[in-house]
Amino acid sequence: MSGQTMYEKIWRSHEIVDLGDGFSLLHVDRHMLHDGSGPVLARLKERGRSVSQPDLCFATLDHVVSTAPGRPVTSDNRRRTIASLRDGVAEAGIRFFDIGRTGQGIVHVIGPELGISLPGTVVVCADSHTCTHGGMGAMGFGIGSTEAEHVLATQTIVQAKLRTMRVTFVGNAGDGVTAKDLILAAVGQLGSAGGNGYAVEYAGRAIQTLEVEARLTLCNLSIELGAKVGMVAPDEKTFDYLAGRQFSPKNELWNRALASWRDLPSDHDAIFDAEIEVDISHLKPKITWGTSPAHVMDIDGIVPDPSSTGHRNAVQYMDVVPGRPLVGLKVDWVFIGSCTNSRISDLRIAANIVGGRKVADHVSAWIVPGSENVKRQAESEGLDRIFKESGFEWREPGCSLCLAANGEAVPPGARAVSTSNRNFVGRQGPGARTHLASPAVAAASAIRGVISDFRTMKD
Amino acid sequence: MQPFTRIQGIAAPLLRDNVDTDTIIRVERLFNAVPRADLGLYCLESLRHLSDGSPDPEFFQNDLRYQRASILLCGRNFGCGSAREGAVWALAGMGIRCIIAPSVADLFAANCFQNGLLVFTLDQAIIEHLAVGVAADPAGRPLVVDLERCQTGFADGEPIPFSVAARRREALLEGLDEIDLTLKQQSKIHDFRQRDGELRPWIYTA
Q: What is the mean pLDDT of residues A106-129?
């Protein structure tokens, strides 16, 4: 019998009942709740049920809260949404990281940062980017509201077992290539449905050498491949990252956990249902030109000729010209933030490019730290001053312009370079045009006022 | 949950690929206290107009013949993107009971089944063929979707087989509530937790 993949190991260790036909009832170790969870808690109560294991639930506010200084509440509906979560978690006795409190932030930033999402755990949240937690060696996946109600009521979830895919990055990436570029390259190669039905494990030396935060960025875009689960095997870097964090196991439990975590990586003779190689030896920093994360090109490349109606629609919406470069196109907005690229390492990369330079006059440039802890760390390093002096807005932690659920939006027709994960039609606001890229490309574009290749910046 | 056994209805074409859940329902509708039942009013709103602001005559919602559609014939990777269940509530609010596509995003499909919507895949060529057959006279050429037999097609035509996971099929046919089903497994859940608490105590002591 061949060995097991990491996904299979985690699946087996969480299987309560094999329901047949590929479905199982799984234990949920960590349930993350956000502003959208208030109505779910209310519905659970309406139906006469209660929260089964409040100690395994963790709640914060990220989607609808303002990221403006002072956190103004900008509509009655948002006020009600926020109140609904506060009331729901208070009544259920769920740990809650409210705005202004240490620990508040984007769910997929605080999970790893606080040691909530651990290797080998099943992490769920009513948000598709829960795949991010795979960067810790967890099996994280997004669920819907009804499934979230199921988890609250039972601390379990019914899931169909996914097929397994290993995506191996081969070769050494060039200078300035980040995890964001690696995963955008994979999405471009496999397409936005290439991972449908799969749990993906990312492998290769390039992945082993990535720092933990970069692995979170990598796994974050798994859903942009269509894969609800994306994981990286935990290793010494993961364990060093977790040691001493607020909810990480301590003392004797830490030693026991560590021993268990070392058994998690896929066995050498494990067989994946699909094996994909992504050659990164000639990889350059990436940027998207269209309205799908799979519409991706090299930062110094040209917009491809449309090959379908979908491409033609995308070219028209984005107002880009096939056969021409993106570099040089006027940029109106720059957003550095989101569960993809708002961690301290992302802000350091951006600050390094921004330092001593000024944001172009016509550009609205925002830095939205992923969490209160990221914000405080950045301030202790003086990064906030670098950003503010160059003309960036230094904001409070939240999802903000990634999905424009909090009233913050890129205006119609405006062109934005964003470090987030989706460039769908209207994603950052009705009519907004989004180019996805790394923090380095976004920072350089803010300074020059046009889409820019940071590798060619001299002064 | 409303059971799904057999329906006969108008099938509307939405054959473009990669229709994402942001496109199906905009996020501000979800966080704007719009009641679930009214989300249908905003379903697919960003596809209704051309870039000059005029209604797109090609789009099914602008064609009165499809006004009472209960089946959607879709393109590839339908429902990609976010996990928002509001996308399903919006489609249901518009009267849609069944979605047929060459491929469907996993999270979206799971949400459909939680709400009594049937989703299944067919070859793109078959879907396009069905759409052509409907277009001549949508009300006069309704599609039948029979979940008991796992067949679809025109009432007067050859049945086309489809497949749905047995567990999901049964839940739809019976209108079962998954939470109720799981609560019946309470003793197994309890046993698991006892065992797991010994094996992985750090999970329970956060």
A: 98
- Element containing residue A279 per DSSP (H, E): strand A274-279
Is residue A263 located within the same domain as residue A359? no
Tell me the chain B residues in contact with residue A145 when contact means C-beta distances shorter than 8 Å: 85
CA–CA gap between residue A324 and residue B19 (Å, rounded): 27
Domain holding A409, by residue range, is: 288-456
Who contacts B158 (Cβ-Cβ below 8 Å, separation ≥6)?
Answer: none
Residues A314 and A264 both lie in one domain: no
Regarding an ipTM greater than 0.90, the answer is yes
For residues B92 and B140, state if they share a domain. Answer: yes
- C-alpha–C-alpha distance, residues A284 and A286, integer Å: 6
> What's the rounded Cα separation, in Å, for the pair B101 and B79?
10
Within a domain: A164 = yes
Q: What is the mean pLDDT of residues B39-46?
A: 95
Judge if B56 and B86 occupy the same domain. yes
Give chain A's end-to-end CA distance (angstroms, integer).
60
Beta bridge partners of B166: none
8 Å CB contact of A150 and B32 = no
* Chain A residues touching residue B128 (CB < 8 angstroms): none
Of A78, A193, A426, the CB nearest to B46: A426
B51–A316 C-beta distance less than 8 A: yes
| Residue A215 within any structural domain of the chain | yes
Between helix A383-390 and helix A344-354 the angle, nearest 10°, is 40
Q: Are residues A10 and A64 in the same domain?
A: yes
CB A248 within 8 A of CB A118: yes
The residues in B 139-198 lying below 8 A from A, measured between CB atoms, are 165-167, 178-179, 182-183, 185, 188-189, 192-193, 196
* Average pLDDT, integer, range B166-175: 96
B127 with B185, same domain: the answer is no
Closest CA to A293 of A445, A217, A387, A188: A188
Q: Per the structure, how many domains does chain B have?
A: 2
DSSP A306: P
Is residue B198 domain-resident? yes
Q: How confident is the model at residue A1 (pLDDT cuts 50, 70, 90)?
A: low
Please give the average per-residue pLDDT across B27-34, as a whole number: 84
In a domain, B1, yes or no: no
As a whole number, mean pLDDT of residues A403-426 equals 96
Q: Which domain holds residue B193?
A: 177-206
Q: Is residue A283 part of a domain?
A: no
Asked if the Cβ–Cβ distance from A249 to B111 is below 8 Å, we say no
In this structure, what are the phi and psi dihedrals at residue A371, rounded to the nearest 5 degrees? -155, 165
Chain B residues 46-105 with CB within 8 Å of chain A: 46, 51, 76-77, 80-85, 88, 103-105
CATH number at residue A209: 3.30.499.10
Choosing from A240, A274, A308, the residue where a domain stops is A274
Please tell me the predicted confidence (pLDDT) of residue A459.
Answer: 57
Three-state SS at A158: strand
Give chain A positions within 8 Å (CB) of B88.
144
Q: Average model confidence (pLDDT) for chain A?
A: 97
